[in-house]
Amino acid sequence: MLKSIAIMTSGGDSPGMNAAVRAVTRTALHAGVKVWGIYGGYHGLLDEEMFEMTSKSVSDIIQRGGTFLGTARCKRFTTPEGRQLGYKNLVDRGIQGLVVVGGDGSLRGASALSAETGMPIVGLPGTIDNDVWGSDYTIGCDTAANTIIDAINKLRDTASAHRRVIVLEVMGRNSGWLAMTTGISGGAEYILVPEEEYDMDEICADMKESYERGKRYILVVVAEGAGKGFDISQQIVERTGLDTRVSKLGHIQRGGSPSVIDRVRASQLGENAALAIISGLSDIVFGFDRGHVVSINLHDAVNNKKKLNPELMRLAKVLA
Hints:
The chain has helices at 17-30, 41-46, 80-92, 104-117, 141-162, 177-185, 200-212, 229-240, 260-278, 298-303, 310-319; strands at 4-9, 34-38, 50-53, 97-102, 121-125, 165-170, 190-192, 218-223, 244-248, 284-289, 292-297. The strands form two sheets. It has a seven-stranded mixed β-sheet with strand order 3-2-1-4-5-10-11, with helices on both faces. Strands 7-8-6-9 form a four-stranded parallel β-sheet, sandwiched between helices. The mean pLDDT is 96. The chain is built from eleven helices and eleven strands.
């Protein structure tokens, strides 16, 4: 049984990270294990920005968005020399295991650290994109989806009033989960994702025909990896002449108080991560499969690409 562990949040922030850190910390402390917090992700690990945490350290944070530990992307950690320095900084403090909360890139760095140094690592999938292989859910994706839906509901009102086409660009450079999920639940006529090719000529022709039949407005949800919202809106105007507006939500999708689902699931994952790491387990990521917490091989998680559910893509076409 390990006696001292550390926890960090890395990469893009996501609502629910605080709930995960809180659960890891209090579960480990309850078992008599010392817990260190690392500020600023891998940057903090290399710059020795670490502190010993108490139960009070994680009080009054479960309802907060972002991450109180801070986060950053760190180029130095992508090198073997950087990872060796990070390992040394952990060992110098008597830290025997590390919990990393983050997305694909963060977990990839954790996997490399474990492979090169033998440091026990347990990962938690923290990313609004919901793109970590092996898990149906990632911390923050539910809150982000609800933020987008709130925007869609408001955009629908103004689109209907002016008989406009609204193009809404959401996050998702390599994954269309946010666009697909919110597009379906928001009643979008067109959903553009990086996993699927689309034909703008065909889409625009269909739009013109819909307006000729009396359609009052059209909503297009596009993941950033499938195209820039401004470019798509320009193509629609040029090909159809329809009054078109574009809205890009940007980083508002990352913020806000986490939803009930994100708080509960992040807490469940955090407890499992703490129990696993202090028992000496390593190289695993905890996620969800059909509503149940599951463990995923860390190296499999970072070396496989999660695919967008084809049933969602089929449903989007049926309901459009």
